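Re: the 454-residue chain
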Amino acid sequence: MTHDSDIKKVLIVGAGMSGLMLGILLTHAGIDFAIYERVAEIKPIGSTMAFDSRILAVFEQLGMLDEALKISFPCRGLNFYDSKLQVMGGFDLSEYKDRTGYDTILFSRPQMHQLFLSKIPKEKLHLGKKIESIEDSGENVIIHCADGSSASGDVLVGADGAYSGVRTSLFKTMVEKSLLPEADREELSVGHICMVGTTKPLEDSKYEALKDNFSHFERVMMQGTPHSWSTATVPGNRVCWLMTTQLGSISTDTTRFKNAEWGPEANQSMINEVRDYPCALGGTMGDLINLTPPEMISRVFLEEKLFETWHHGRVVLIGDACHKMLPSGGAGAINALQDAVILANCIYDIASATSENIHNAFADYRAQRFPKAKYQMDKAKVMATIQYGQTWKDRAIRHVIFNWIPKSIQTEQLLKDTTYRPQVMFLPNIENRGTVVLEPQRPCKKYIQKQSAE
C-alpha cells in the first residue's frame, strides 16, 4: 500500500506488543518505520493474557484473527476459590460472543508476542539498541544509542514500557524548559509483586482440564496471607500460572524498591513460600512450577501511574510508557494496542510533516485516548482489588460483589467496556456482529478521499 503522507519514517522504541502492533499498522498504511529494542535477544517470558472484542476486530482487519485463535482458547469465565478450594464466586463470560461478536480468548504471552514478531520484516527490527538521548531539532528527531549508533525520523514513538527511556529523556528536556507538570515528576506506585510462568506441555492424565478445548481460568485466594494465584489452560497442553503478593503501596524511587532482589535466589525464595499452596487444577503450585522451564519464569512488580504528558515536539508515548495499569482483565495490553491503533490513524491523516501538523496529530491522539485510559486505570484498580486484594476491606468488597450483586448486573458492567472498539480507519471496517451498541469513531479524512477517488 502506498501513502501520500509527508511522514517518511517513524522511529519506534520498544519491541513489546504495542510497538510491534504499531509497526504492523504502519506497514498496512504504507509508512516506513524502524523498531529499536534495548535487549540483544527477545526471550519468551510471560504468562497468560486475554484479548476480547475491544481489540480482536483490529486483528480481523489485519488478517491476523485466525492465527490468534489458533494459539488461544476461548474463556467462558473466571472462577475464584478460597484456600480450601471452595468456590467463592466468579465472573461469567459465556454471553460475550453473542453480545460482542467475539469470544474472550486466553493465550500465553510468548506465543502471541511471537505472532506479532512474525509480521515485522527482519530489517525493520534492531536489537541491542539502548537509547541514551533524544535530539528533537524541530525538523526531525534523532535517537542516540549506547553502542554509538544513531537514527533519524520524522517522529519518535516511545513504546518502551513502564520505565521508558524515551519518556525519561523527553521529561528531562521538558523539565529544563519548565514544561513538565509536577504530577509527572512523581514515580510510579507499586502495590503488588508477581511471579509468572508457562509450563512445558503436560500430560492430560494428570490435569483433566487439559482435555478441554476452552480455557479453565481459576484464581485462589489464601486468606491470612498476602498471596493469591491463578492458573489458565492454553493450547499445547500447557498451563500459564501467576503468583501475586500484595504489598503496602510504595514508590519506585524508595530504598525498598531499589534494593529489591531480582536474581534466581530471590525467585527461589518466593517459590519456597508458595510451593505447597493448592492448585485449582489439581496438585500444588509447586508441581506446576517444577514443570516450568526456569527461563520461562519471571518476577516483576505491578506498578501503576497515569502520566499527564503523552507527547512533546516530535515525540509521543504509547502503552505502559504513558499509562501503566494493573494487569487485571487484560486492561494494560488491550489499552496499549488501542493506543497504537489510534496513533496510527492520526499519523495516517498527517498531510505534511510540519511541527504544527505533528503536534496537532499527537494532541488528537491524546484527546481520544486519555479519557479512555483514565477510566480503565480506575477500572483496573477495582478489578485488582477483586483479583488480588487481601486486606479486610478488599475481602469485604469481593464478598459483596460475589454474593449480593446479581450475575446479570455483573455481566452488564463487564460488557460496558466493550462498547469502545476503535478500528483501523484506513482499512475496511469490520461490522458489528454482536448486540452491544458501539461508540462511533471518527473516520480518517484521507481514506475517505481515496475511496471517493477510486
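The CA atoms of residues 133 and 168 lie 9 Å apart.
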